């Protein structure tokens, strides 16, 4: 049993004091390391470059067997033979000078940058060791090696880690730093392997204010085969958005090669490039494979990789059967997804016709001549809502919407708690749009939510992109070219659960907005889940010695399993125990446990105004009397 009480005027709750110890930690400052991702699929790997410092303005990293092996697989299609049998986490070694420089050049070209070094025509030696303008990855020079030496953390393995810069590319002396042995040499010439020396790579910091990297933002998980969006934002080295960049063309790719991009959002995949606008853009993507994938944006010397995206298989659809015998039919609701928490389906002529036969005994007159598998249309608003309500009542759920007494229009479009089937709201329609498969026929399937009055509400065209569609005339008239959809709530919620849905704390006794009014009491008193509900609390006055409280609350029939009661005591329950009286739905003929209620229903609403009188006889000898409301739910 969950219980929450509200103290009335004259009653003061003792505050609860929480002692919070704050621990100050001294954290070493410094620039962050930089991680770059290269390759795709099984050949993908990342390199984390040590942070740039004031003394060393280039991040550095050593190259491991696994990284070099994946480069070799990506460029030659085979593993690097000399590395076979060596630990993948060891420093790479026995790599020829040509292979070292090929690796460096590939790091650049994978980011859309120029290669760092230029080979001769026969690809046997470098033209010179001058670095190409615009490249970002290089072998360190001797001074850069020594400046960055203290930043390096060496991987284990049989290969020492040396500065390997050559002057001409032939038999040049190397200055040993790691193992203290000077005058190490390439074995013979530039193309030969060197047996005991690993190598490092530096990442040059781009000029101040220029494009450094991309942030690639995407949510996870997603559904395989569904369309979702990715946002790419160009950043400089300081992490500021390049808002003036309207020229850089960015290319999108995926780690598995299965992603399909749609840069112009025309529904056709295959266009994976898009130009920045004010430093950013959003692009549509889908991936038909159940897998984990990352997305990389490359262009203008920048590169960025998304977090891992889990592509989930579609959950099974929900199949519900309605009617009996010849009038029986089934609706298959699209599966509930992460982004769309209610299954949806469109209604076909055959289905609507069977509903008509089941409820009226004759066929729907406006559907003759239309294929049974076409989308149902030319249905007036009353018939449409009757269909939704019948889906609920024939399955044992309450009707979704409430009509006026004449059955000509709805009291409101508010959904009745505990119902299962509804017309989608506009937000629900748009959220489910990527998962809809339309039936053929002359009627398009549009969002058909009325504006609330049941007369002439606008329709927001989604399928045929025609906006401003209307009911032909009034709620009762037919509309000629608009079909409709139904959603199924996968979890039929209690009235309170429907009200609290979406709040950060959903317990009956929780108070997520810290207004001092627990969720359950706020709900019963017509408050809001995240708005301040203190104004909904009872007003207490002393009228002729009687304690009088006034408030607005839900009718008992709309409270589900919850209960609301008035309680009173002359000493806060110390000796005089709290006396309780349940709040009724109408004014009773006499007092309930000593409490006089006056109940005034609010028309066309589930709420009522309540006035409570607790007599002077309940007070103590010195005139003290305390009252409170208590909300409970099982």
State the shape.
elongated
- Helical fraction equals 10-25%
Largest beta-sheet characterization = 4 strands, antiparallel
Strand order of the largest sheet: 1-39-35-36
**What is the domain total for the residues?**
4
Q: Count every beta strand, where a strand is a DSSP E run of 2 or more residues.
A: 39
Care to describe what's here?
This protein is an alpha+beta fold. The protein has 4 domains: about 35-205, no CATH class; about 210-310, Immunoglobulin-like (Sandwich), CATH 2.60.40; about 320-490, no CATH class; about 540-634, Immunoglobulin-like (Sandwich), CATH 2.60.40. The chain is about 10% helix and about 25% strand. The protein is built from 8 helices and 39 strands. The strands form 14 sheets. Strands 1-39-35-36 form a 4-stranded antiparallel sheet. A 4-stranded antiparallel sheet has the order 13-15-19-17, with no helix packed on it. A 4-stranded antiparallel sheet has the order 18-16-21-22, with no helix packed on it. β21 and β22 (about 300-305) form a beta hairpin. It is elongated, with a radius of gyration of 36 Å. It starts with a strand and ends with a strand.
Overview features:
634 residues, four-stranded antiparallel sheet
What does this entry show, briefly?
Helix content is 12%, strand content 27%. The chain is an alpha+beta fold.
């Amino acid at each position: 049993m969950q219980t929450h009480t509200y103290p009335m005027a004259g009653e003061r709750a003792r505050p609860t004091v929480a002692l919070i110890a704050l621990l100050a930690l001294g954290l070493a400052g410094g620039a962050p390391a930089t991680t770059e991702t290269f390759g795709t699929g099984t050949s993908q790997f990342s390199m984390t470059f040590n942070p740039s410092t004031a003394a060393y303005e280039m991040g550095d990293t050593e190259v491991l067997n696994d990284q070099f092996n994946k480069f070799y697989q990506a460029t030659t299609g085979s593993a690097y033979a000399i590395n076979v049998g060596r630990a993948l986490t060891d420093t790479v070694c026995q790599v020829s000078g040509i292979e070292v420089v090929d690796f460096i050049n590939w790091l650049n070209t994978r980011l859309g940058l120029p290669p760092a070094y230029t080979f001769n025509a026969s690809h046997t030696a470098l033209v010179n060791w001058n670095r190409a303008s615009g490249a970002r990855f290089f072998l360190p020079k001797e001074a850069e090696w020594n400046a960055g030496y203290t930043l390096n953390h060496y991987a284990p393995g049989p290969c020492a880690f040396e500065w390997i810069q050559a002057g001409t590319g032939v038999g040049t002396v190397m200055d040993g730093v790691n193992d203290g042995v000077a005058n190490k040499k390439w074995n013979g010439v530039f193309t030969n392997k060197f047996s005991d020396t690993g190598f490092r790579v530096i990442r040059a910091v781009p000029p101040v204010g220029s494009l450094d990297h991309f942030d690639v933002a995407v949510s996870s998980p997603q559904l395989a085969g569904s369309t979702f969006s990715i946002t790419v934002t160009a950043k400089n080295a300081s992490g500021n958005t390049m808002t003036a960049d309207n020229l850089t063309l960015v290319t999108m790719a995926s780690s598995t090669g299965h992603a399909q991009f749609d840069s112009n959002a025309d529904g056709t995949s295959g266009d994976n490039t898009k130009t920045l606008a004010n430093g950013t853009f959003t692009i549509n993507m889908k991936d038909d494979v159940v897998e984990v994938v990352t997305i990389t944006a490359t262009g203008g010397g920048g590169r960025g990789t998304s977090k891992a995206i889990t592509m989930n298989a579609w959950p099974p659809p929900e199949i519900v059967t309605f009617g009996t015998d010849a009038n029986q039919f089934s609706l298959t609701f699209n599966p509930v997804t992460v982004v769309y928490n209610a299954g949806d389906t469109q209604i076909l002529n055959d289905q609507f016709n069977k509903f008509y036969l089941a409820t009226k005994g004759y066929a729907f007159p406006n559907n003759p001549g239309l294929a049974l598998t076409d989308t149902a249309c030319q249905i007036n608003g009353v018939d449409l809502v009757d269909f939704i309500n019948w889906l609920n009542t024939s399955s044992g759920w309450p009707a979704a919407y409430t009509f006026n007494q004449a059955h000509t229009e709805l009291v409101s479009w508010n959904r009745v708690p505990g119902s299962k089937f509804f017309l989608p709201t506009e937000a629900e329609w748009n959220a489910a749009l990527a998962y809809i498969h339309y039936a053929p026929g002359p009627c398009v399937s549009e969002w058909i939510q009325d504006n609330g009055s049941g007369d002439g509400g606008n329709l927001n065209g989604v399928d045929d992109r025609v906006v401003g569609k209307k009911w032909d005339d009034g709620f009762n008239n037919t509309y000629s070219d608009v079909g409709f959809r139904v959603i199924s709530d996968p979890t039929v919620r209690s009235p309170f659960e429907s009200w609290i849905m979406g709040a950060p704390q959903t317990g009956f006794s929780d108070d997520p907005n810290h207004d001092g009014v627990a969720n359950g009491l706020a709900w019963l008193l017509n408050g809001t889940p995240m708005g301040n509900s203190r104004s909904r609390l009872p007003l207490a006055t002393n009228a002729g010695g009687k304690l009088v409280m006034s408030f607005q609350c839900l009718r008992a029939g709309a409270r589900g399993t919850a209960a609301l009661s008035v309680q009173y005591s002359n000493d806060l329950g110390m000796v005089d125990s709290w006396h309780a009286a349940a709040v009724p739905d109408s004014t009773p003929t006499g007092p309930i446990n000593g409490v006089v209620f006056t109940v005034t229903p609010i028309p066309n609403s589930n709420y009522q105004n309540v006035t409570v009188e607790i007599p002077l006889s309940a007070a103590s000898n010195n005139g003290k009397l305390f009252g409170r409301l208590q909300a409970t739910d099982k």
